[in-house]
Automatic annotation (TrEMBL):
The chain crosses the membrane at residues 68-90. The lineage of its organism: Bacteria, Bacillati, Actinomycetota, Actinomycetes, Pseudonocardiales. This is Septum formation initiator. It comes from the Bacteria. Pfam families: DivIC. Keywords: Membrane, Transmembrane, Transmembrane helix. Residues 1-38, 149-169 are annotated as: Disordered. InterPro entries: FtsL/DivIC.
Length: 180
């Protein structure tokens, strides 16, 4: 019997373990230990994080509410710092696009005027323009002007304009109210 007791202690004392029954129990122990260890580690980490946070609060001398307020102020300051240049950038971008559009219109106008200048470099074109616009005639020519009825300007007294009544506006109003 003494041998049996020694054999058992030898088996249980080994690092690798022995026997079929002890092998079946070991994985269960490892799982339990692992789950327990994980829970303990999680608790430990949480408590360390809380201690660190409270340590930071103690160092800064502020509560979490005050820290949140400081963070909010910093974020607002950054937003205002970015907002003004961004607004300026966007307004300048729109102005640049407007100026580019104006520039393209002016370039078209310049091209059109240069074409007109090329047309007027011909003496025959200048003569035709002077006859049309100013009614010029060459010496020895007889000018004829055809005037259509629609072209006549109406004379002042023809259209039956009403005479301008004398007196100021308030006198006219009083006369209308008074019935006279």
């Amino acid at each position: 019997m003494a041998d049996r007791g020694r054999a058992r202690t030898r088996r249980s004392g080994r690092a690798g373990g022995g026997g079929g029954s002890s092998r079946g129990r070991r994985p269960e122990r490892a799982r339990r230990t692992t789950t327990t260890e994980v829970r303990a580690r999680t608790r430990l980490r949480r408590s360390l994080a809380a201690k660190r946070a409270s340590g930071a609060a103690k160092v800064l001398g502020m509560s979490t509410t005050r820290r949140a307020a400081v963070v909010a102020i910093v974020v607002c300051a950054l937003a205002f710092t970015i907002a003004v240049p961004l607004r300026t950038y966007l307004s300048q971008k729109s102005e640049v696009s407007e100026q580019q559009q104006l520039q393209s219109e002016l370039q078209r106008s310049v091209a059109q005027l240069e074409g007109r200048k090329a047309e007027l470099s011909d003496p025959a074109q200048i003569e035709a323009e002077a006859r049309k616009r100013f009614g010029f005639v060459k010496p020895g020519e007889t000018p004829y002007i055809v005037q259509l009825p629609e072209d006549k300007a109406p004379e002042q007294g023809e259209q039956g304009q009403q005479p301008v009544p004398a007196g100021s506006w308030y006198e006219k109003l009083w006369d209308q109210v008074a019935g006279g």
